Amino acid sequence: MSGTHSRKLRPVPDTETRMVFRTIHGYRRAFRVAGQGPVILLLHGIGDNSSTWAEIIPHLAKNYTVIAPDLLGHGRSDKPRADYSVAAYANGMRDLLSALGIDHATVIGHSLGGGVAMQFAYQFPQMVDRLVLVSAGGVTKDVHPLLRLSAVPVVNEALKLLRIPGAMPTVRLIGNALSELHHTRLRPGALLHDTPDLLRVLSGLPDPDASAAFLRTLRAVVDWRGQVVTMLDRSYLTADVPVQLIWGDQDTVIPVDHAHLAHAAMSGSHLDVFQGAGHFPFRDDPIRFLRTVENFLATTRPHVSDENRRRQLLVDGVVEDAISGSESTRMAVLDAMACDERSAT
């Protein structure tokens, strides 16, 4: 694969994606809806919105009801001064699905959305049919230096500079130049692979409410040392949940090493690493992404929650023998679980 968007999907005729608004707890939530059938919930990453899935939604909607929300604080949803932790986002998804009369869904989460998907499965296991984690946050500490810097109070004040007239056209110009550089033979390697998409996310931040919500969300999961939330300590609870992991080997935001750690910690999970893809594998290679997801959906049965089984898993806790992979990978998983800086959300 030569680079971002090198493989285009064909349009899907007669498939309408609607933008719908629903007020819950007094806040307006925006979400895209398409198709009919079993429900798929698509969760985007930090600073992004449901439009990131626009190319994917019509294809999944041929056989499924697809719901892609703008998370609170993002896109066209309200941006209140509120709790933007992964636990709060999981609660919000529970409330949205409940308001729509949906009892369970396959949850596909990208980046922050992957962390929210895992938290959702932890808090509401009876509502999760399957999990698809795409370049998911919350595995271990490593994260793009730009996000670490953005979480530092002094540095994140620089985001206000995006409100200066002419600032965003300049950012977009730089982004376009970097994108062109990335696609030429003079490519500077993986370092710039995700820069165009990161700048696309930044382009939505000149709005003061969007910027404030972004920073609150970021500080809930990242500080100057990296990610402060890990899902590895509770990954054993997904033992009976079908899990698909999708990562790009050129991911500069959340390194592909995280994929191998999550795969080792999640017994029975499937892992697909896309060669040449970055932090947005569903944008870099949408054809392969759809093929992977559709095969996973077709070859797995929806999870049926068993409270007695879950209680026993909690009693037994992490069983070292259930961690797969090489000795170094297993030790890395155990080290990440034992890190005294991680969040216990």
What keyword list fits this structure?
disordered C terminus; 345 residues; eight-stranded mixed beta sheet; 10 strands; disordered N terminus; 2 domains; 13 helices
Largest sheet: 8 strands, mixed
User: How would you state the average pLDDT, rounded?
Assistant: 79
The residue fraction in helices comes out at 25-40%
SSE order, as H and E? EEEHEHEHEHHHHHEEEHEHHHH
What's the CATH topology label of the largest domain?
Rossmann fold
Shape call: globular
Instruction: Please indicate the percent range of residues in DSSP E strands (runs of 2 or more).
Output: 15-25%
Q: Which stretches are poorly predicted, pLDDT < 50 over at least 5 residues?
A: 1-6, 170-189, 340-344
Q: State the secondary-structure class.
A: alpha/beta
| Counted beta strands | 10
CATH fourth-tier homologous superfamily of the largest domain: Alpha/Beta hydrolase fold, catalytic domain
Helix tally equals: 13
Distance from first to last alpha carbon: 38 Å
Number of domain modules: 2
**CATH architectural name of the largest domain:** 3-Layer(aba) Sandwich
CATH class of the largest domain: Alpha Beta
Radius of gyration: 19 Å
Spatial ordering of strands, largest sheet: 1-2-4-3-5-6-9-10
Structure description:
With 345 residues, the chain is an alpha/beta fold. The chain has 13 helices and ten strands. The chain has an eight-stranded mixed sheet with strand order 1-2-4-3-5-6-9-10, with helices on both faces. Strands 7-8 form a two-stranded antiparallel ribbon. It has two domains: 237 residues, Alpha/Beta hydrolase fold, catalytic domain (Rossmann fold), CATH 3.40.50.1820; 78 residues, no CATH class. Helix 9 links the parallel strand 9 and strand 10. The protein is globular, with a radius of gyration of 19 Å. 37% of the residues lie in helices and 15% in strands. The N terminus and C terminus are likely disordered.
